[in-house]
Design goal:
The chain has 181 residues and is α+β, with helices and mostly antiparallel strands. The chain is built from two helices and seven strands, in the order H-H-E-E-E-E-E-E-E.
Length: 181
């Protein structure tokens, strides 16, 4: 029963489609032989300019040549006179010295700052009212509590929004906010 209804629906759609696209009045359409030309020979004339023909407008531009930009005319501005800046003081060669070399403590402090800048605080969780921080540096991850270390840095504070790391050797520290805040 269901198949017969489906077959009837398909046949009805085919009939409607053929009826929609079938020409309504095949005899009313004019054939190519009965159509009359509406254009005359003057309309079909190709207008070509020859060297002696002055009735056509002159071609001013070669279409096969790239146009070059026209330079802008710049109006000269009135220059305000200023006093010449004083010449820089030239120090004698004996007074020009290289900065003093950095101490190992300064180099170690700069390295600690660079390492500390790479550490990110991914998240903070609280278990049994004790905070734990989840740090990441490159491929390494660390789950730490207060007093634990991340690389050479000691965790001195953990809150829900941030954690503080401190390097006891160089006394460099930084408060790191949770990522995304």
């Amino acid at each position: 029963m269901r198949r017969s209804w489906l077959a009837a629906a398909i046949v009805a759609l085919i009939v409607l489609n053929v009826w929609r696209w079938w020409p309504a009045d095949a005899t009313a359409k004019p054939s190519a032989d009965t159509r009359q030309a509406t254009a005359n020979a003057q309309d079909l004339r190709l207008a070509v300019r020859t060297s002696g023909d002055e009735s056509m407008p002159r071609i001013e531009r070669n279409i096969f040549q790239v146009r070059r930009p026209v330079p802008l005319r710049v109006e000269p501005r009135a220059v305000l006179s200023r006093a010449a800046p004083p010449a820089p003081a030239v120090l004698p060669q004996t007074l020009q010295q290289d900065p003093p070399p950095r101490t190992p403590e300064e180099i170690d402090a700069e390295m600690a700052q660079a390492e500390l800048a790479q550490i990110k605080l991914v998240g903070v969780i609280f278990r049994d009212a004790k905070p734990r921080a989840y740090f990441a540096r490159g491929d390494q991850t660390y789950m730490v509590s207060l007093g634990d270390t991340v690389e050479r840095f000691t965790v001195t504070e953990i809150t829900a929004e941030r954690a503080r790391l401190h390097d006891p050797r160089t006394r460099i520290g930084r408060t790191i906010p949770v990522l995304g805040k």
